[in-house]
Design a protein that fits this description.
By secondary structure, the chain is an alpha/beta fold. It contains 6 helices and 20 strands. Helices cover 26% and strands 37% of the residues.
Length: 249
């Protein structure tokens, strides 16, 4: 299984069916996630992925696998005496020889594409700052996660789509600040909650829709209808409203 298969599997778990191919949902999944971007290596000219667009104009970059060559060049560099006559000239001269590094893939990582700052992770696409993760795409700043898409901030979570600042959650979609929660959708500020949809500021609750309590059979019936609607909308429009939009407005 690769990350595209994991996307389909995650959709089946969360949405009771598939919605389409992973690349078609890139704009939706990348919304509100720290973006990676391509630049050219100043040493080889090849494409390098970096984690942030916040660099000074004229900055130069290298790939992580070019560090040995960069180190070799830096060791042999000698500044002209006129370049170190004062602090400003020294900083300017040194700046011409210092590069930023991208494509940082370390540890026991494999099948990582278009990503930066990845450690001990497998089957990763278009992501950054992931540690000990697997089957992740369009995500950032997560640890010990799997089957995560369009998510950012947190750890120890799996089967999630568009989840932000989460910890120990499973089978959730469009959650924000949800901790130790399972099977939640479009909810925010939850702790120790299960089976909640469109619910906010709850602790140790379950079977809630819009903060209203339902019996388990009633909840499952309404949940099925709402999840089917989310799936159909996502499949046709390749996007649905985000929990971030709801909480921001």
């Amino acid at each position: 299984m690769d990350v595209r298969d994991a996307w389909k599997s995650t959709c089946r778990v969360l949405l009771r069916g598939e919605v389409g191919e992973l690349p078609d949902f890139e704009p939706y999944l990348m919304r509100y996630v720290e973006k990676v971007m391509p630049v050219k290596s100043a040493l080889s000219g090849k494409t390098v992925t970096i984690s942030s667009p916040e660099f000074s104009p004229g900055s130069k970059f290298i790939s992580h696998d070019e560090m040995a060559e960069f180190d070799k060049r830096l060791r042999s560099m000698k500044l002209d005496i006129n370049s170190i006559k004062d602090i400003d000239s020294a900083v300017s001269a040194l700046g011409e020889h210092l590069y930023y590094c991208g494509d940082i893939i370390t540890g026991n990582s494999s099948e990582v594409k278009t990503a930066d700052s990845i450690a001990n992770s497998v089957h990763v696409l278009h992501s950054n700052e992931l540690y000990d993760c697997k089957f992740m795409a369009y995500s950032s700043v997560l640890r010990y996660c799997e089957n995560g898409f369009g998510s950012s901030g947190g750890g120890e979570s799996k089967f999630m789509i568009k989840c932000f600042e989460v910890f120990q959650q499973t089978r959730c979609m469009e959650t924000f600040r949800a901790y130790t929660c399972n099977d939640c959708y479009y909810s925010s500020n939850l702790e120790n909650c299960n089976d909640c949809m469109f619910s906010f500021n709850q602790r140790a609750r379950r079977n809630l829709i819009g903060n209203r309590l339902f019996s388990p059979p009633e909840y499952q019936k309404l949940k099925s209808k709402l999840v089917d609607d989310i799936r159909q909308t996502l499949a046709s429009k390749k996007s649905v409203p985000s929990i971030v939009d709801l909480t921001r407005d």
